[in-house]
Amino acid sequence: MTDLPRTVALLGGGVIGGGWAARFALNGVDVRLYDPAPDAEQTVAEMLDNARRAARRLTLAPLPAEGSVTLAPSLEEAVAGAAFVQESAPEREGLKRDLLAAASRAAPPDTVFATSTSGLLPSRLQADMEHPERLTVGHPFNPVYLLPLVEVCGGEQTAPETVERASAVYRALGMRPLVVRREIDAFVADRLLEALWREALWLVADDVATVEEVDDAIRFGAGLRWACMGTFLTYRIAGGTAGMRHFMEHFGPALELPWTKLTDVPELTEELLDKIVAQSDAQAAGRSVRELERLRDDCLVSLIQGLRTHDVGAGAVLAAYERELFAAPALGDPSSDGAGEPAPLRLHTAVVGPQWIDYNGHAHESFYLQAFGDTTDALLRHVGLDLGAGFSYYTVETHLSHLGQARPEERLHTTTQLLGFDEKRLHVFHSLYRTDDEALIATAEQMLLHVDVAAERTIPADPALLERIERIALAHAALPSPERAGRSVAIPG
Question: Which three-class secondary structure string do you get for the chain?
C-alpha cells in the first residue's frame, strides 16, 4: 500500500464523493472533505456505514486501521498540504472548472488532481488551473467502495506522470484503472452504458416492456456473462471453434437491420416520466434507497467473490488487492528485540458480521475457526513470513474451546502466546475476547508445520525467520501456561 498518500482532499460528498471517502478511509487514508451541502456529513456517514458492512463481507484479509473522515470548513483548508485531490462536484462544467481552479491555487504545486466527471473533457476542466498538467480524470462507478473500475484520462495539458501517479493510487485502493487512450466525451464505459440506456428508454416508451422486464432481460441474461467475459470475449465464444471472424460474418449483417434507435432519443415527456416513475416505484416494492443499496452491495460481494475463485474480472482485482493486504505487516515490528515483544501478542481484531450468525442468533462455530485462522495469519505476517517466496506454515491440528457467545456487530480481539517451536513446528495458543468487556469467548491451541508450498512437504524454516520467532519465544517464556493448553476431549470415567 506504499502508493497511498497519508491524507487526501475530497471536493464533493454526494453519492460519488461519499463513496470515495469510504474507499480511502477503509484503506487507512485520512480524508478531508469539503462540501457546503447541509446534509453532507450525514450522507458520508451513511455511505461509510454501508461500506464497512460490505468490506466485512467482501474479504477476510486484514484491512489497515481506518482513516479519519473530517469535514473541512473551506476548500482551501481541505486541500492544504494534500498530496491527492479527488473532485466529485455536480456534473456542471462551469462549477467544476471554478472549483478546480480555486483548489489548484491553494494546494501544493505537486498535488495530483483527479476529477470524477463521467463525461466532461479534462482539457476544458483544466483550462483555468494553476499547473494544469497535474489534472486527470478518475471516473469511478457506483458504489465506489465496491466496484473496482476507474477510468483515467488525461487532457491536452496533462503530464504522463500524472496519469501514472493517479493510477498507482487507485491500484493501491484495490481498484482497476482503465487508462483511456485519447480524450473523448463520456470516455469508454459510459458510452456503452448510454447506448443501452437509450434502448431501454425506447422499450418502455413504446410499451414493449416495463422497467422491471428490461432489468430482468439484463440480470438473468447477458449481465451475468458480462461480469466475467465482457462483450467481445462473449461474442468470440458465440462464434464457436471458428472464433470471432465466423461470428462477425454470421451476425454482422444483422447490424444493418432497423432494430436499434441508438441515434435517436425518446422525448422525455411528462407522460413517459410518470410511466417510468410509477413502474420504478412498483419495482422497489416499498424498499428504501438504503435497503436497496445494501441488497445491491450484498449481491455484488457474492459475484465478486465468485469471480475471485476463478481469478477473473473484478474477482482477479480483489485477489490481487488481498495479496497486498496480507503482505502488509501486522501490528508490531518483527525486527524489535525480545524485550519489545508484547506478551502475549495482540495482532487481530474482528467484528461479528451478520453472515456468521446462525439460527440461534449468535456466531456459528465456523466463525471461531475463521477468527483463529486469521489470527495465525497475522502472527505469520508479524514474524516476517514472505508468503510470496513459496513457503508457509500449515495448521495440522487445532483444539477449540467455546467459552461464550459472540453476537452480531460485537467487536472482538485475539491474543497469541507462543508455547514452543523448532525448525519445522510452531505451537501457539490463541484467546478470543469481546473487546468491550474483555470477556473470554473462545480459545484455540494449534500446531503448525513449515512447508515448501510447491513441493508440498515440510522443510526447516529459514534461520532468519527462526531468529525472529525465538525473540517472541523468549518474551513469552515467563508467561504461565494457559489453563486450557494441552487439553483433550474426553468424558471422565
Answer: CCCCCCEEEEECCCHHHHHHHHHHHCCCCEEEEECCCCCHHHHHHHHHHHHHHHHHHHCCCCCCCCCCEEECCCHHHHHCCCCEEEECCCCCHHHHHHHHHHHHHHCCCCCEEEECCCCCCHHHHCCCCCCHHHEEEEEECCCCCCCCEEEEEECCCCCHHHHHHHHHHHHHCCCEEEECCCCCCCCCHHHHHHHHHHHHHHHHHCCCCCHHHHHHHHHHHHHHHHHHHCCHHHHHHHCHHHHHHHHHHHHHHHHHCCCCCCCCCCCCCHHHHHHHHHHHHHHHCCCCHHHHHHHHHHHHHHHHHHHHHCCCHHHHHHHHHHHHHHHCCCCCCCCCCHHHCCCCEEEEEEECCHHHECCCCCECHHHHHHHHHHHHHHHHHHCCCCHHHCEEEEEEEEEEEECCCCCCCCEEEEEEEEEEECCCEEEEEEEEEECCCCEEEEEEEEEEEEEECCCCEECCCCHHHHHHHHHHHHHHCCCCCCCCCCCCCCCCC
